[in-house]
Design goal:
GO terms for molecular function: RNA binding; tRNA pseudouridine(38-40) synthase activity. The structure is a single chain. By secondary structure, the protein is of the alpha+beta class. It has 2 domains: 103 residues, Alpha-Beta Plaits (2-Layer Sandwich); 143 residues, 2-Layer Sandwich (Alpha-Beta Plaits), CATH 3.30.70.660. Strands 1, 2, 3, 4, 5, 6, 7, 8, 9 and 10 form a 10-stranded mixed beta sheet that branches. Strand 2 and strand 3 form a beta hairpin. The longest helix is centred in the first third of the chain and has 13 residues. The protein is globular.
Length: 258
Amino acid sequence: MRNICMTVSYDGTSYNGFQSQPGLNTVQDRLERAIALLAGEEVKITASGRTDAGVHARGQVFNFLTSSQIPLNRWCMAINARLPDDIRVWDARQVADDFHSRRWAKRKTYRYSIRVGKYMDPLRRHMEFYHPTALRIDAMREALTYVEGEHDFTSFCSIRTVAPSRIRTIYEARLETEEADKHLQSSVFHIYLTGNGFLYNMVRIIVGTLMQIGEGKREASHMKAILEARNRGLAGPTAMAHGLMLWEVFYEDSPIIT
């Protein structure tokens, strides 16, 4: 048996999330089906984490055990030929027998994209949240500094969160802007959050709160008070799923298993 680790990108628009669910269309189901068709055996893949319905991934990592002797350099092209066009595997490696893509992950980066201005981009509408009016970018940047470090993120997770501990560490929180699109008279900025783990809806609730700060409904300093209160009711709404992307998963010193 070999333990194969792969990296996959997908547009989550048409899927009910990553994790397999009875009667629903998920990315995991599509991947397992493609691998079964290729290898001639049923496999169960383990991913670095789950993404919700409508959420995308640039660098989701998963692994599975297989008795197939297909050479590693053939796996990606062969699997992609059996996948829909909105899912693409782009890296395949053999890893240690005890490697587990979720348990071995050291940190992850999520990106949330927001377009601000006169017109939305119809070509990127599934990957960006559109906000027609200006946002206070500097205030949002200041607010992001309060979530860096180790904190109890109870205020920024769904009440349906079942994790026994709400303590997580955010290593980096930043906001980057793209050059404005003169035709659409709008511009995009991306919020990046890198941490050792994320609670259910944590990134989307942080972003929803940031947008209220950007709109002038809250001050940047309120982010600190909300965090310390450990009360979900004090934070902003959960931002829409389609602006969110699992950007990268890191193992040891490299984002890809070697």
